[in-house]
Design a protein that fits this description.
The chain has an 8-stranded antiparallel beta barrel with strand order 1-2-3-4-5-6-7-8. By secondary structure, the protein is mainly beta. It has 1 helix and 16 strands. It starts with a helix and ends with a strand. The chain is 8% helix and 45% strand. It folds into 2 domains: 136 residues, no CATH class; 87 residues, Immunoglobulin-like (Sandwich), CATH 2.60.40.
């Protein structure tokens, strides 16, 4: 699994869990994520988003939430080369994004408070409170032909991989939402697994019934969304 794919999956999981577990429009976190008395700046608009990386294979993804509950905030996911992952919603503060990327829904006991500022023509600088400073540059854009999205409805998870590779479930961090851009047509094997007390019902494809089998093999050559539907037993 590529770093970019893993990062997108983890970001999606963090955001999905945040919506389900909190249902709040604040930036949450195990500590104060922003100073409401100094958030935003009418003379400055944050605009940098996408995937950024440094020479040590540390990554940060910044995206604009479109759920309507986090207006004025940015979704930030950090994947460090040592395996640490942090992700939550940050508010603009002055000319930066500032806040705590360790939320109440993850297993991190310590705060991970960051200040992210623009650097150079298209880069970012991330300063970790009491820790390291990172310098990121924008990853090169690619020409994508399709976006594969996989989601769940009800309590359950899924695992997927390109055909020919092993499909592995992660019981510690179950995947409930994922997205992957494709540069060429590709075939995937996708498997659904219900949580205890729930049962798998069906897969839908772009909102239409697709299969009642939990394991499916699909060829993706255009934008598509598959949803695993689970019902309580």
């Amino acid at each position: 699994m590529s770093i970019k794919k893993l990062t997108i999956i983890l970001l999606a999981f963090v955001l999905a869990a945040g919506f389900a577990g909190c249902g709040t429009s604040g930036s949450g976190g195990s500590g104060e994520s922003s100073d409401s008395g100094d958030s935003g700046d009418s003379s400055f608009t944050w605009s940098r988003e996408g995937t950024f990386a440094d020479e040590n294979k540390n990554y940060v993804i910044i995206t604009k939430p479109d759920d309507g509950e986090h207006d004025g905030m940015w979704a930030v996911s950090v994947l460090l080369s040592n395996g640490d992952v942090h992700g939550w919603f940050l508010e603009p503060k002055g000319e930066t994004l500032y806040g705590n990327l360790n939320s109440e829904i993850d297993e991190n006991d310590d705060d991970y408070i960051v200040t992210i500022s623009e650097e150079g023509d298209d880069g970012l600088m991330m300063e970790v409170e009491g820790g390291e400073t990172y310098h990121f540059v924008k990853e090169e854009d690619h020409d994508y032909i399709a976006l594969l999205k996989i989601n769940t409805d009800g309590l359950g998870s899924f695992a997927y991989a390109p055909e020919g590779e092993e499909v592995k479930f992660d019981d510690e961090f179950p995947t409930q939402s994922a997205a992957e851009n494709l540069e060429e047509p590709k075939t995937f094997v996708i498997k659904a697994k219900p949580d205890e007390g729930w049962k798998f019902v069906k897969w839908t494809k772009n909102g239409e019934d697709f299969s009642t089998e939990p394991d499916i093999t699909v060829e993706v050559s255009e934008d598509v969304e598959y949803i695993a539907v689970f019902n309580a037993e």
